[in-house]
Design goal:
Structural class: mainly alpha
CATH architecture of the largest domain: Up-down Bundle
CATH class of the largest domain: Mainly Alpha
Largest sheet: 3 strands, mixed
Order of helices and strands: HHHHHHEEHHEEEH
Strand order of the largest sheet: 4-3-5
CATH superfamily of the largest domain: dinb family like domain
Radius of gyration: 18 Å
Helix content: 55-70%
Amino acid sequence: MTATGTRPEPLARYRDWLAAAELEYARLVEQLRGLSAADWRRPTDCTEWDVRQVVAHLVGAAEGNASVREAVRQVRLGRRRKRPGQDDVDGINAVQVEERAEATPAELLAALADVAPRAVRGRRRVPAPLRALPVPFGPPLGTKPVGYLMGCIYTRDAWMHRIDIARATGAALVLTPEHDGRLVADVVAEWAKVHGQPYELVLTGTAGGTYAGGAGGERHELDAVEFARVMAGRAQGEGLLRTTVPF
């Protein structure tokens, strides 16, 4: 179902996602530079992680993007590490955090600033035939092209964690229609495709826009960042907002 209305356009090309990833990493690093020592210990919406552990995960994920060998190593260890009922992603995330358990905030910040450009370069090196290959990632991704993971999901993940950190610490959340608005527009487009029902969605704030598909559907109005949090499972939604998308 096609979204219509006044709103930013979703990111359409793989290179657009990687340009967004570059900016997202830059904003993350700048955000982290402004945190106090106490901020790094604050709990986040990722209930098992504080701010320091969220950043440890981000560093680990970026290291995996920067090096195929490192990505394979994390997958291998993650499959061993995951608990009963968990999927591979949970195990990989646990490995990323546990391996950096002794890293200081300053070390994690320096590591993220160093690896972020290499992570994006690594994602750019993924050839188009491989990006088109459908892979069964398991829940919550299901079967998706490799390019969906490397372009969309890793960028969404970093963006949502920047939101997590801002909420945990009270740090300013820098938002622009050109960047954050397009990320939100992409989430809306995927959400509309998944639920397949008529809808009207009014998202307020800098990253917001007006979206609609069909006629006579549910109407929802909420802040754009809050909508993204609902889609990512950070908050509860009603009606069609119970339909979520991967982050």
